[in-house]
Amino acid sequence: MQLIFRYVRPYLKRMSLGLLIKFLGTIMDLFLPAILAHIIDEVVPLKDLGLVIRWGVLMLICSFLAILGNVIANRMAAWVARETTRRLRHDLFRKISYLSNRQIDGFTVPSLISRMTTDTYNIHRMVGMMQRIGIRAPILVVGGVAVTITLDPVLALVLTCMLPIIGIVVYLVSRRSIPLFDQLQKSVDTMVRVVRENASGVRVIKALSRSEGEKTRFEGVNRKVMQNENRANMVMAFSKPAMNLTLNLGLVLVVLVGAHRVNAGLCGPGTITAFLTYFTIILNAMMSITRVLTMWSKALASAERVEQVLSTEDDLIPQAMEAREESAHIVFENVRFSYNGKESNLEDISFSLEKGQSLGIIGPTGSGKSTLAGLLMRFYDVNGGSIRVDGRDVRSYDLKALRDKFGVVFQNDILFKKSIGENIRIGRQLEMSRLEKAAKDAQAAFFIEETGGMDASLEARGVNLSGGQKQRLLIARALAGRPDILILDDSSSALDYQTDARLRQTIRQDYGDTTTVIIAQRVSSVKNCDKILVLEEGRMSGLGTHEELMQTCGLYREISKLQMGEGAEA
Question: Is the pLDDT of residue 568 over 60?
Fold first, then answer.
């Protein structure tokens, strides 16, 4: 609730004005039955047509003012709800953008997508509904009771006896429904994850004829969502018949008591007519409160989920650490790291690189190669040891200042639905000449020209490009900023050997001051690096040049012979 109020607060003045207009319009609605009762009981017996017309015109004016006030107030409510949700989504998106990888792993990407879409939509609906119905309905209930007291206190007492029962129903339903809606949103997270996996892997699913299996899997999570939604809705559905029963019993009592009072001459038929009208108004208002209650329960559960993200403390803030005087550009010193805090993923990793040197990292799948790159860029913090860039521990850098040093291509990196030039520039203030130079160095200039130049549009994820074309564009993106440190994580797997060789030669010649880290599966991609690090199960199996490793590292020698033949030593 505090989250919602925090984002509504800047619009309190506008919202207050809208609520005032809504209040006045609702009061006009409440006048109508009372005026009708007065006409029936007081004006009609006088048999004065002119007086009836004047009171009728007053009813028309009240009706017009009620409609006009509700329309204006509803438009203002819609504006407040829209702006509140826009700011909330902006802050939520910004917060997600700055979450560490560890925090994203904790929330999971499908859950963050669900919070960004479904949960903020629930809050949007609640903010709008509270201003439109959440204010109008209670005014109609309270105002209706107040007016009926002035008309006939005895009949009003019958009505007020029903309200405590309704309050108890509302309390019990809301107490039970909020946890159920929280479970519902969690099951929606799971469904989003399955849909996301299927959308991303649709080619694999079709190629392996797994469509029926995936349909079954989706049916399972979809049924879970349905079951959770049914449970929540069944609890909410109890409130409507309970309120209907209570109010209709009250309506019967009003008719019975009213009949006796009219028969005794204690009130007129117009009063009974007005009471029945007010009862209908109150009944409809209570039904509206039920709908508001449903939306309120959903929104509170959603607000808690959004607040969990927004209140997450940054865990990668710069730390005060003493810098060292050292000539090495990059230093890993006894680095130890674990994703889950239990099983070690990297253990006792130590090496150093001078500025302009190149490091190749090779090893079996799952040996921790990409993890090293993530630690260097501080996507995660080490559990032990230290990583230093220019003599400073990476944990002491401002994140932007640290990552501005890097140009990077990750495995399965992303191309956006923009032009080729925008995908290379990616928001940086780079001149076109710089983009063209980077594309040329990445061996991408020829196919870019054939595609239509820098202004040619790409589809989402670059699906209109081949694998090799995607990788060359991604490498061009990394080179365009003239980085101090270049990380290429399995970025040449789709390139032919000739293109890969030209690319590596260009990087050596034109980016001599750039320290390069190449993560690869192919020995040919790292063979000419100044240093080669061999990883096996998160530990260093060897470190040295190609020739040194062929003599000292059995794993490297085995990989080299498998890929390059028995003459690999030469």
Answer: no
Of 62-76, 198-212, 513-527, the one with minimum mean pLDDT is 198-212
Which pTM does this prediction carry?
0.74
How far apart, in whole angstroms, are the C-alpha atoms of residue 535 and residue 345?
A: 11
C-alpha 140/C-alpha 485 separation (Å) is 67
Sign of CA dihedral 97, 378, 408, 514: positive
Residues 400 and 417 in one domain: no
Domain count of the fold of the chain: 3
Domain shared by 283 and 426, yes or no: no
Measured between alpha carbons, how far is residue 213 from residues 108, 203, 209, 225, 541 in Å?
Answer: 24, 14, 9, 19, 41
pLDDT tens string 41-56: 788 888 788 888 888 8
In the three-class reduction of DSSP (H, G, I as helix; E, B as strand; rest coil), residue 534 is classed as strand
The residue-averaged pLDDT of 151-170 equals 75
Give the model's pLDDT for residue 86: 94
Over residues 213-250, the pLDDT tens digits come to 888 888 888 888 888 888 888 877 777 787 778 777 87
Q: What is the pLDDT of residues 341-382, one digit of tens each?
A: 788 899 999 999 999 999 999 988 888 898 999 999 999 999
Question: Which secondary-structure segment (H or E) carries 33?
Answer: helix 12-38
Q: In terms of domains, do 330 and 289 share one?
A: no
Report which of 491, 493, 490 is spatially closest to residue 477, judged by C-alpha positions. Answer: 491
d(C-alpha 147, C-alpha 96), whole Å: 51
Residues 177 and 267 grouped into a single domain: yes
Cα(397)–Cα(316) distance, integer angstroms: 10
User: Of 406, 435, 433, whose CA–CA distance to 515 is shortest?
Assistant: 406
Q: What angle do CA 72, 77, 81 make, to 5 degrees?
A: 155
SS3 536: strand
End-to-end alpha-carbon separation of the chain, Å? 71
471 and 521 housed in the same domain = no
CATH number for the domain harbouring residue 387 = 3.40.50.300
Q: Rounded to the nearest 5°, which phi and psi values hold at 7?
A: -90, -20
Q: Tell me which of 185 and 76 has the higher pLDDT.
A: 76
Q: Looking only at Cα atoms, what is the longest distance across the chain?
A: 120
For residue 480 the two structure tokens come to 């365009």
d(CA 505, CA 509): 6
CB 79 within 8 A of CB 21: no
Amino acid identity of residue 188, one-letter, is V
Question: 3-state secondary structure string, 40-109?
Answer: HHHHHHHCCHHHHHHHHHHHHHHHHHHHHHHHHHHHHHHHHHHHHHHHHHHHHHHHHHCCCHHHHHHHCH
Give the pairing of strands 539-544 and 531-536: antiparallel
C-alpha dist (Å) from residue 348 to 80, 129, 363, 537, 540: 56, 58, 16, 12, 8
CA distance 533 to 546: 10
